[in-house]
Amino acid sequence: MDHSILISQIQALVPMDDEGTILQDASLLIRGNQIEALGPAEQLAQWVNRADEVIDGRNLLVLPGLVNTHHHMFQSLTRAMAQNDELFQWLHTLHPIWGGLRGEDVYISAKLAMAELLLSGCTTTSDHLYLFPNDVRLEDEIRAATEMGIRFHAARGAMSLGKSKGGLPPDHICEEEEAILQDMQRVIEAHHDADPYSMLRIVLAPCAPFTVTHDLMIEAAMLARSYGVSLHTHLAENDNDVQYSLEHFKMRPGEYVESLGWLGSDVWHAHCVKLDAAEIQLFARNHTGVCHCPVSNMRLASGIAPIRQMLDAKVAVGLGVDGTASNDSGNLLQETRQALLLQRVAGDPAGLSAREALTLATRGGADVLGREDIGRLAPSMAADIIAFRTDQVSFAGAQHDLLAGLVFSPPPGVTHSWVNGKPRVKDGILLDVDLPLLIEKHNQCAHRLIAAG
Ligand SMILES: [Zn+2]
Question: What are the domain boundaries of the chain?
Answer without folding.
Answer: 4-64+375-430, 66-368
